[in-house]
Amino acid sequence: MDELKRAKQYVEGADSARIAPIPNTACWLETVVTVFLLSCGKKPTRPILREPVKIPFQDAHTCLNQGNDFNIKVFELGKCLKEWQTVLSPPTSRTSPVLLPYTQATNGDLLTYLGITLSPLHSTMRAELVPEYARYHDQVLQFYPQDASNATIHLESPFSESDIAATTASTSDHDLGDDLKIREYNPCGYDSAQIVHTTILVWFAGGGWMLGGIESDHNILSNICNEAQIRVFNVAYRRKAFPTPLDDAAQAMQWVQQQCGPIKVILGGVSAGALLAVVTMLEMSQHRIPPLGILLVAPSLINTADSHLDWAPVEAPWLTPERMKLYQDTFLPRSKDRSSDNWRASPVYAPRKLFDDAKTVRTFIASMGCDILREDATRFVDVLNDYNCDVTHYSCPSYPHMAWAMQGTLGETLLIRVLRFIELLISGEDGEEALEMIFQTTKL
């Protein structure tokens, strides 16, 4: 309620002489609505927002340049307003006297009120996806923009409410310098003088090499830490162009080994982070210190100039071809880095010698069926099989790309499979019976 009162005071008390900063927790559309209303000098009623009003570009430009930290430009304001006026739902009997421009960032009140749908779930995908995801998409994700730009891509994560709850694992953050950080997780009640396992997990979160940081995957990593009773190190690599994230991964791995001494290492990563995990694995193996195993979830492993030709299904939600192209173009701005010769950006093309050095590494790959990057996973599985490497492929045909961040909404099945593989690596068990343990459906 305090936030809503402040928003009301903000809009009603604003004048051309002084415009206070909009709360930085406002979502992208709430920011645009507020700028529009301030520029027009109108109160935010539904009829006003439904009218095809001429956009006051000069006033909007002034508003955007008076010290407010907006992630949006004037031309994008116009684009968004045009989008509203073409996709607004028909009038309903629901009434509201005045709509405040600022509500919670992810609860959809503003967009539900306006009836705006910017990213509808494709009809062919609705039949393929698990119902839990479809419901969450209808409730939350459809109210986020489908277009990808530097202004709209840096959004507050819409998956915060879909994540699994965090556990009480203890954490400590380490600053390695040059904006490279690591968060260490220790099981609840862990005594630093004791050794939980002689095995650790080093994790690389996703985000298209653009998004994320030390908080990424916090909830799910705390669960892994406590459930498997294993120390976890989450590498907050710099979200910059190639090869910075990969160099950060190598530096972080050296730091972890220095801190932990001789110890068995499991590498893991999701999406863009899976690329870092694979390259780190191959480089460690090349130096005769291969990790014990590697966990890859919805990996991005093919980033050549023509990789988009294999993206399917293109109707898959959230990680659209346009979003993925933005990620790749930002991560790999030089055309020479988009060649299959650059195996550090596309490790499916790594020389066989590197895989021969990694023969002892046990690999677990989880692919999502409703993900444009599913071919990246299956291609890498084929490469590992062709080179007689140890690989376990777990297919999730009805899951979207971002299933790892949705274990609270979609259930814990994927997390359980990952935990079973970690337990398998720690136990040192082998054979078909041991592998069957991964696919058991026991709940946490």
UniProtKB/TrEMBL annotation:
<dbReference type="InterPro" id="IPR050300">
    <property type="entry name" value="GDXG_lipolytic_enzyme"/>
</dbReference>
<dbReference type="InterPro" id="IPR013094">
    <property type="entry name" value="AB_hydrolase_3"/>
</dbReference>
<protein>
    <recommendedName>
        <fullName>Alpha/beta hydrolase fold-3 domain-containing protein</fullName>
    </recommendedName>
</protein>
<dbReference type="GO" id="GO:0016787">
    <property type="term" value="F:hydrolase activity"/>
</dbReference>
<dbReference type="InterPro" id="IPR029058">
    <property type="entry name" value="AB_hydrolase_fold"/>
</dbReference>
<feature type="domain" description="Alpha/beta hydrolase fold-3">
    <location>
        <begin position="201"/>
        <end position="402"/>
    </location>
</feature>
<keyword id="KW-0378">Hydrolase</keyword>
<dbReference type="Pfam" id="PF07859">
    <property type="entry name" value="Abhydrolase_3"/>
</dbReference>
